[in-house]
Amino acid sequence: QVQLVESGGGLVQAGGSLRLSCAASGRTFSSYAMGWFRQAPGKEREFVAAINWSGGSTYYASSVKGRFTVSRDNVKNTVYLQMNSLKPEDTAVYYCATAHSFGMVDSTLYNNWGQGTQVTVSS
Predict the structure, then answer these.
(1) How far is 40 from 46, CA to CA, in rounded Å?
(2) What CA–CA distance (Å, rounded) separates 117 from 22?
(3) Alpha helices in the chain (DSSP H)
């Protein structure tokens, strides 16, 4: 089992940047692919980014491509989401999750979830 804790959210002005962290505890973190999702009030959970077990492959939703970067450090057992050029429509609770396959956009195929961290972007 892997436990995940997101951090780094907060309030930022449009055009600003935030870096989210997802700290994992457990024995087999490096064997998992990881995903980032977000959910705004009244909306379905939305895929944001994915990264494979080694960090050598990434995949992004079209809405964030070119602005967000996902990375991982398996020594520190941490996955990151660097968010640049933030827009008000990026406002949501952001979640990280583990998966046994890379690049899935369906949230129901992910296994373990963190508690989420709030990102609010003001105009």
Answers:
(1) 9
(2) 10
(3) none
Beta pairing class for 18-25 and 3-7:
antiparallel
Q: Which two tokens stand for residue 13?
A: 């002005």
Q: What angle do CA 6, 61, 39 make, to 5 degrees?
A: 45
CA distances to 3, 81, 103 from 7, rounded to whole Å, are: 13, 10, 23
Phi, psi of 47 (to 5 degrees): -65, 140
* CA 13 and chain centroid, separation: 20
Matching residue, tokens 């490096």? 30
Q: Which of 49, 78, 64 is nearest to 17 (CA)?
A: 64
* Sequential pLDDT tens for the chain (123 residues): 789 999 999 999 999 999 999 999 977 778 899 999 999 999 999 999 999 999 999 999 999 999 999 999 999 999 999 999 999 999 999 999 999 999 999 999 999 999 999 999 999
Write the DSSP symbol of residue 113. Answer: B
